[in-house]
Here is the input.
Amino acid sequence: MGRLGPVNQIQESMNTSALGPMTVISLEGEAKSSSEKVFRGAWRVSITLLVGLLVFLAWLVRTGELYDSNSDFAYNIGLIGGLLMLSLLLYPLRKRIHALDRLGKMESWFKFHMIAGITGPLLVLFHSTFRTGSLNGAMALYAMLLVACSGVVGRFIYRHIHRGLYGNQLTLAGASAELKECAENVRSVFALRPDIEPRLKAFQDAAFDLSGSWQSRAWRFVSLRWRSRRLAKQIRRDAKNALRKQFRKQGGRRREVIVNYRLAREQVDRYLDSVVKASQLSVWEKLFSFWHVVHIPFLYLLVFSGVVHVVAVHMY
Here is the structure.
């Protein structure tokens, strides 16, 4: 290993626990192991098959092949879907009423909120047989779709200000500390090529640059993640070529070159990801607060329109 020169600095900067993330199964970022690639492929195939099955069932329901909108089955799945949508109010109540703290962890409540927010609208859609009949039914259906779409947007924003789907909320101090740590660790990669450091520094400066018009800042915000992935791909390619040249020149074991490339790749990916998180966190927090202002009235509108629909159905 000593004959590989600068690669020593990469391995010395990582302890033995750094090999752990290579075996962790994750759906974000680049796959770090063959088992993770297989898992991701199986997960994507499963989701595709499930979506295809739902679309096929929706087509059968829409054509009236399975059941009629006035049948007992349609009524029952609509009732279950409506109760699930109504249960969405339990999560915000659990967050704000301290007397409910003993009723399970917030993570479990949030999981239920996510599942109910997906299953409820699906059942209501199948209940309606994908048609809008009466005015009150159409209002309830559109209100539900509005809440569901708002929930998808909220889920997208949520993942940018939390660690994972059910993790703790990120803070600016925590993101800055993570960026500082990653900046120290990535220094070990600089020895592979002299142009790696200035390219990473230029990206960080651009990420935190607040100058220019609001249009240019908005575009910089939207494209930053894509630019980080493109830069990471370029640096990984350059690092791999540098390690190959050192291997051909100085010798050593090929397995060591592969391990050192994976470590260098992980350092670069973590650094660029921490830059993006730290530079965008405040914007995502503002967007999330704005989303809350819009989402809550939508939820109340859903409850009101749903109650009106149920009353109208049973009265007439």
